[in-house]
From TrEMBL:
Sample GO molecular function, one term: DNA binding
Record lineage: Eukaryota, Metazoa, Ecdysozoa, Arthropoda, Hexapoda
Protein name as annotated: HTH CENPB-type domain-containing protein
Pfam families for the chain: HTH_Tnp_Tc5
The entry's keywords: DNA-binding
Residue span, HTH CENPB-type domain: 1-62
Length: 140
């Protein structure tokens, strides 16, 4: 189904759709291709969205996290280069002792840090581990 593929593919690329997106898409289609339907002003209701999700269990509603467009473009090569440059800096400034001192080891990950705010409920593929929305305003 075209609508299902559109939802899954845009989510995979970091641009997941919210419930209003398919409603607007179908409304635009019905406005451009008039036909008899039960919708007011060709606009789907929340009941249709719920039934759609029931018919297509591969799509679920999830909360997404925002990621900047610049972060979305970071590659493995970029990360390896950063670590290589960091190693050069540490050696060039005689800081090896500082990084080998166990009292200077800190553990930090995203737990407890709100790295990016939630962007609300979006459609995603069932089982997707992480659901991100690329923040279009952060592109450079």
């Amino acid at each position: 189904m075209i609508l299902v593929n559109w939802i899954l593919e845009t989510a995979r690329k970091g641009f997941p759709k919210k419930a209003n997106d398919p409603k607007s898409s179908v409304q635009n289609f019905l406005n451009d291709h008039p036909r008899k339907n039960p919708f007011n002003n060709n606009r789907l209701g929340d009941g249709w969205v719920k039934a759609f999700l029931n018919r297509h269990p591969e799509i679920v509603e999830r909360s997404s996290e925002s990621v900047s467009a610049a972060s979305a473009r970071v590659s493995e090569k970029d990360i390896r280069l950063w670590f290589s440059e960091l190693e050069t800096y540490i050696k060039g400034n005689d800081l090896e002792d500082a990084i080998s001192d166990p009292t200077r080891v800190y553990n930090a990950d995203e737990t407890g840090f709100e790295v990016s705010p939630s962007t609300g409920k979006v459609f995603a593929k069932r089982g997707a581990k992480n659901v991100y929305t690329i923040d279009r305003g952060a592109a450079k």
